[in-house]
Design a protein that fits this description.
The chain is 49% helix and 5% strand. By secondary structure, the chain is mainly alpha-helical. It has 3 domains: 73-150, no CATH class; 152-188, no CATH class; 191-343. The strands form 3 sheets. The protein has a two-stranded antiparallel ribbon. The protein has a two-stranded antiparallel ribbon with strand order 3-4.
């Protein structure tokens, strides 16, 4: 005798497509079918993609709306990695952290920063930092004016050795000077950009070793620090005939160098209260005035200071020397102002 099996269906439950009951999944249970699993993966992927465009209101101080421009995911990841590594330009970080809070929509402004700061190479898929947009050039100028001049600090001997030289007095070259109350302070030079060169003459631009791409990049970085721009790139074979007109980019480059030397000359006369620093500034001032005269010589006579024809090669070498001396003068001047400020 066959036994009959009874099936009980809960009241109000709806039948499935096959006529059987629908079994509800328990909360938190995994996918029951392949289709459910695929849909779950799609949803997870979409949520991750939107993460960069819909960050929490807490991060952006409650600002942001559906009308904000979309934040590029790859650029946002690059920004985060570089920030954690401490390799973002300080003026870009200042824009993101501080300037954004002054905007009507801080989030939208931060999105603009991230999307503008990087460029993707379509061939390699890599992102490179590009800070030549007006947003960043102006921020860089303001940052350097604010922190590059007044941000220098001097330390007593014990603090200097402990902080920077691992308590080894011979680990670095330091400069000693005294304040008005007799306290000894120490400072040191920090070079952030430079160019490998060969033997230098009195003008510093003869017998220079053949340049590499790395040297060219360092040279361009040095000019950028001075807010100068390279008039030519690559290996342009340029020779200006004596007395002929200089190319406009070259003349503009010289005019910027002239303006910088004039400004440095005026500022150098200010910090005169520390004789130790002022003696060094006096030497830098003399060198600056010499370079000013040489730049004006090229502009006026369309020839190099040694009466040689202007070529791209000797012009680049000359301007490299001028840039290196100018950066050193900038740093010395900032140190002098810091000394004066510390003694007041």
């Amino acid at each position: 005798m066959k036994k009959s099996k009874k099936i009980f269906i809960k009241k109000n439950s709806k039948p499935g497509k096959s006529g059987g009951p629908v079994i509800k999944k328990k909360p938190g249970a995994g996918p029951t079918t392949l289709k459910d699993a695929v849909e779950g993966i799609k949803k997870s992927s979409m949520d991750k993609d939107n993460m960069w465009d819909d960050q929490s209101a807490e991060e952006d101080n409650g600002a942001g709306s559906s009308t904000d421009s979309k934040r590029d995911k790859g650029k946002a990841e690059k920004f985060t990695k570089m920030r954690l590594a401490g390799s973002l330009p300080p003026y870009a970080v200042d824009l993101y952290d501080n300037a954004a809070n002054q905007k009507e929509s801080p989030r939208q402004f931060r999105t603009e920063i991230i999307n503008t700061l990087f460029k993707r190479n379509p061939k390699t898929g890599r992102y490179s930092l590009i800070d030549d947009q007006p947003l960043f050039t102006e921020a860089k100028r303001v940052w350097e004016k604010k922190f590059g001049t007044d941000g220098k600090e001097s330390y007593t001997k014990l603090v200097m050795r402990g902080l920077f030289f691992g308590n080894s007095e011979s680990a670095g070259e330091v400069t000693e000077f005294k304040s008005k109350d007799g306290t000894c302070f120490y400072s040191f030079r920090k070079m952030t950009a430079g160019v490998e060169t060969g033997q230098e003459s009195s003008l510093g631009y003869t017998k220079q070793a053949k340049g590499t791409q790395q040297q060219a990049d360092m040279l361009e970085a040095m000019f950028d620090k001075l807010d100068w721009s390279m008039p030519y790139k690559g290996t342009d074979a340029l020779v200006v005939e004596p007395g002929k007109k200089l190319p406009k980019p070259m003349a503009a480059f010289l005019e910027k160098a002239v303006a910088t030397q004039i400004r440095l000359g005026g500022e150098t006369m200010l910090p005169q209260e520390s004789s130790d620093v002022y003696d060094k500034l006096k030497k830098a001032y003399v060198e600056s005035q010499k370079m000013l005269g040489e730049c004006r010589h090229i502009l006026a006579w369309k020839e190099m200071p040694d009466s040689q024809p202007v070529s791209k090669d000797n012009f680049d070498k000359f301007m490299t020397f001028v840039a290196k001396q100018t950066l050193a003068h900038h740093e010395l001047l900032a140190n002098g102002k810091a000394v004066v400020k510390a003694t007041k």
